[in-house]
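Customer escalation, tier 2.

The customer says the design service returned an amino acid string that "doesn't look like it belongs to this structure." They asked us to rerun it and document both sides in this ticket. The original structure tokens are below, unchanged.
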């Protein structure tokens, strides 16, 4: 019986991890699209994506946010440590990166 409950705990934590990665990925993707389309203050965008991740993924402890734009592409990288609800069996660090082609005005 104890093995069953341990397996359920692991399954639930993996499900929460996958969900948090998808939520953070959506925030990072939106940020990359905003940067690719127009002239955006990169420091303000870095703070914005960090705030979006904190608000949308409870349990995510942000370790690093990197926002870059070149003439060809815009990229956003967020590295966070996942603290799931319930028992924290192992520490999990997740890196989410999105890159979009830069839009060049005519």
């Amino acid at each position: 019986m104890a093995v069953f409950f341990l397996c359920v705990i692991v399954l639930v934590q993996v499900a929460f991890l996958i969900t948090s990665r998808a939520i953070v990925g959506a925030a990072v993707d939106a940020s990359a699209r905003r940067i690719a389309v127009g002239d955006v203050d990169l420091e303000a965008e870095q703070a914005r994506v960090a705030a979006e991740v904190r608000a949308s993924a409870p349990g995510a402890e942000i370790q690093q946010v990197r926002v870059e734009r070149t003439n060809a592409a815009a990229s956003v990288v967020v590295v966070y440590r996942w603290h799931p609800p319930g028992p924290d069996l192992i520490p999990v660090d997740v890196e989410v990166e999105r890159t979009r082609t830069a839009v060049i005005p005519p």
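Tier 2 assessment: The sequence is consistent with the input. The longest helix spans residues 2-37. The radius of gyration is 17 Å. Sent an explanation to the customer and offered a walkthrough call.
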